């Protein structure tokens, strides 16, 4: 059985070519160790600029493991922060000494593909402000966005939207229900040189999509008054990015990536212009990607639209898998 240090050495070797490429692309943010596929399930080690972020999701690090990680990455000269999220709801459960907590809460700027993003190792939420496995998706958006209108759904901190604007999109709309996330999205836009500033819409994505798609969102449903929501004009976008959470429930609808992806897919498709691109994400590992794609194509047919071509976007080499089927599935649909 390999020691943790041996696993880290092997992970370094696996990433050598990628990290050289990323450095040339103005990227200082990537996963250094992906424990579920590299020998220590539940452990992730990420570089976010000058921070080494350690996270555990199943069992906390032992003191020996912690020291082995710090020793291995010491030559990088990074500030190490450990977030143990092995408790209920993946919430950060470990206290840090005062000096380490101050470092973890210090605002920083990171870079990916020439785009700047805000980062804090600890903040009011739980997840880092930039999901690294989505880099391949943001890269593809940047390749397509110039001169295009872009809709970024479940935008979180607006990473896809800011990347699209940086690449020359003519119009960008970020939609998310959490004002706290959109505050970070707006701040991310401000620290980049952008010809077009993304519009941030605080809204349940069901309410926004039903309006944008032309289906319409009534203020009363089955005699029940809906919560207030921004009023949006129906319009179609050249590029739509759909990245919903695994499961979420609201008065407007239920997000269920296992049982009911089409509930979101149909209005997202109708909000995509003819000849445009719809990028769909599904982060549930047990969902078979081919069966999921077949479901999307059937849903498109029922909606009177045709999927002309489909292109898989695979997470990059800092997110290896055992079988070539990553938990995060991203498919680009030409519609």
The parts where pLDDT drops under 50 for at least 5 residues are none
Quickly give the structural class: alpha/beta
Strand content: 25-35%
Number of helices, counting only DSSP H or I runs of 4 residues or more = 10
Oligomer: single chain
User: Percent range for helical residues?
Assistant: 25-40%
The N- to C-terminal Cα distance equals: 49 Å
Mean of all residue-level pLDDT scores:
96
Largest sheet: 7 strands, mixed
Shape: globular
Order of helices and strands: HEHEEHEHEEHEHEHEHEEEEEHEHEE
Q: Identify the strand order in the major beta sheet.
A: 9-8-7-12-15-17-16
Rounded to the nearest angstrom, the radius of gyration is 20 Å
Q: How many β strands by DSSP?
A: 17
Notable traits:
335 residues; alpha/beta; 7-stranded mixed β-sheet; 4-stranded mixed β-sheet
């Amino acid at each position: 059985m390999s020691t943790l240090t041996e696993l880290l050495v092997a992970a370094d070797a696996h990433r050598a070519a990628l990290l050289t490429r990323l450095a040339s692309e103005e990227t200082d943010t990537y996963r250094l160790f992906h424990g579920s596929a590299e020998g220590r399930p539940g452990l992730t080690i990420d570089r976010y600029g000058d921070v080494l972020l350690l996270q555990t999701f199943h069992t906390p690090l032992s003191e020996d493991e912690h020291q082995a990680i710090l020793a291995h990455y010491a030559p990088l000269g990074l500030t190490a922060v450990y977030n143990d999220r092995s408790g209920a709801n993946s919430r950060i459960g470990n206290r840090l000494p005062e000096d380490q907590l101050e470092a973890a809460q210090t605002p920083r700027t990171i870079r990916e593909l020439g785009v700047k993003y805000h980062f804090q190792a600890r903040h009011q939420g739980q997840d880092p402000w930039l999901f690294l496995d989505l880099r391949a998706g943001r890269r593809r958006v940047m390749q397509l966005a110039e001169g295009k209108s872009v809709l970024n759904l479940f935008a979180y901190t607006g990473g896809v939207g800011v990347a699209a604007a940086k690449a020359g999109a003519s119009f960008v709309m970020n939609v998310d229900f959490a004002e706290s996330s959109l505050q970070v999205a707006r701040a991310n836009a401000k620290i980049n040189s952008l010809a077009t500033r993304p519009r941030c819409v605080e809204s349940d994505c069901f309410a926004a999509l039903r309006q944008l798609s032309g289906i319409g969102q009534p203020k009363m449903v089955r005699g029940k008054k809906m919560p207030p929501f921004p009023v949006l004009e129906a319009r179609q976008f050249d590029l739509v990015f759909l990245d919903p959470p695994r499961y979420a429930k609201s008065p407007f609808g239920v997000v269920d990536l296992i049982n009911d992806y089409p509930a979101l897919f149909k209005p997202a498709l109708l909000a995509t212009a003819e000849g445009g691109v719809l990028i769909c994400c599904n982060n549930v590992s047990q969902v078979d990607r081919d069966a999921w794609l077949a479901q999307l194509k059937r849903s498109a047919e029922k909606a009177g639209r045709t999927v002309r071509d489909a292109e898989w976007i695979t997470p990059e080499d800092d997110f290896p898998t055992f079988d070539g089927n990553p938990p995060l599935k991203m498919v680009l649909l030409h519609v």
